[in-house]
Amino acid sequence: MTHASQDASHLSRRTALAGLVGGTGVALAAGCTSSDRTSAQGVAPRPTASDTGSSVGATPGVMTLFRDPAFNFSGLWALGGAGFGGSEVGEVLTAVNTINKAGLSAQTYVETFKKLGDQLMGAPEGSKPDRQTRRLRALRAAQYYAQALFFVLGSDTPESEEQLYRAGRGAWDKFCELCDPAPVTADIPYGKTPLPVWFFRPDDSGKQRRTVILTNGSDGQNVDMWAYGVSAALERDWNALVYDGPGQGQLLFVDRVVFTPRWERVVTPLVDWLVARSDVDADRIALTGLSMAGNLAPRAAAFEKRIAALVAMPGTLAGLPSGDSQDPHPEQGEDQQHLEQRGRPRAACGRRRDDGEALRALLHPGDARCPRGQGLHGLLHPCQKHRVPDHHERGRPDHDAHPGP
After folding, report:
1. The domain at 183-318 falls in which architecture?
2. Contacts for 279-284 with beta carbons within 8 Å, 24 or more apart?
3. For the CA atoms of the chain, what is the radius of gyration?
4. DSSP output for 159-228
5. Which residues have a Cβ under 8 Å from the Cβ of 106 and sit 6 or more positions away?
6. In 254-324, where does DSSP find H-type helix?
7. Angle between helices 355-362 and 372-385 (to 10 degrees)
8. Is pTM beyond 0.90 here?
9. Per-residue pLDDT of the chain (405 residues; tens, 9 = 90+)
10. Cα–Cα distance for residue pair 283/381, rounded to 1 Å
């Protein structure tokens, strides 16, 4: 995913990956207005406690909640969920004001949104909310926990990452439990670790329907898929399948299973499970990929012939920059080795302000504080070293037998 500004001085892991897969977030954020979506060329000043509502450094037509574009994009993402019940405008803006008043940082961002999630999952004072109220409170809580989770590695308590994930997952599961009908849940075999899935249906009549498989990106949570497509699919009489793949959700934070570039090995078991159901039209299964999955989903569709339609949002137009052209200039008298040693720990946790070094650190497996870097290293390096087969190669008889470089 990307943030609203092209200012690269505030890279986080999500914004670094955006350079690989394009500008989904710009299109999302631009929905706030009909103005020009072209990014500003200036560099935003460093944030201060009072910096809220300013247009400095922001993309024209995009609301500025925080002066740091990475935080601003995440805040806009939360705000956008209001259209699907995934947040409330008042709650998000109250959180924004609280964070700016305290001084914008990963710590204040994490604390504020976690507290909001905790409040929503607790029992309201002096009332007994009905089923629908509890359902939507859980959905919003899942959103706010996801907001906190995204920046937790840059906070004072990076070790609470799994705890935050479990809180968000608990809120998501409570939301699903209260849906009518509740989604069908299952664990689909995949290697040694099954894939958890949530199969949403407009009703439980058993009617055979078109089905869309929704694939998340690198740092997204299941609640994002509700706003991205589940809600719209149900309104249009489609089924929708949400899942955690390797390097995502439960497989990442709990099972420690990292990304794989061979996403067809992930999608094929999902399709097998779907076509075995009587309420799925096996000839009308679509696959979508959001953010980083804009690369993963086309790869899967190149091999899985039962996919009838594919949507990549966005598709990958270019891979990683080659050479050292993206690296920052070393300080006087500093060689490349010392530059990397100095910058990597902060860069991998979204604290480094240098574009190229942040990306290099993001992919480096050596930083113990940021274990997800190892997963990304394992994903992207094979893609650089080996030819990734394309759609036109599907018909080659030796294709599957010889998938090497």
Report:
1. 3-Layer(aba) Sandwich (3.40)
2. 279/201, 279/206, 279/207, 279/208, 279/209, 279/239, 280/208, 280/209, 280/211, 280/239, 281/208, 281/209, 281/210, 281/211, 282/306, 283/308, 284/210, 284/211, 284/308
3. 21
4. GGHHHHHHHHHHHHHHHHHHSSSPPEEEEE--TTSPEEEEEE-S-SS---EEEEEEE--SS--HHHHIII
5. 151, 152, 153, 154, 155, 350, 351
6. 264-275, 293-303
7. 90
8. no
9. 333 333 333 334 444 333 333 333 333 333 333 333 333 333 334 444 344 444 445 444 478 999 999 999 999 999 999 999 999 999 999 999 999 999 999 999 999 999 999 999 998 887 888 999 999 999 999 999 999 999 999 999 999 999 999 999 999 999 999 999 999 999 999 999 999 999 999 999 999 999 999 999 988 999 999 999 999 999 999 999 999 999 999 999 999 999 899 999 999 999 999 999 999 999 999 999 999 999 999 999 999 999 999 999 886 655 544 444 444 444 555 555 555 555 444 444 443 333 444 444 444 444 333 344 333 333 333 333 333 333 333 333 333 333 333
10. 35
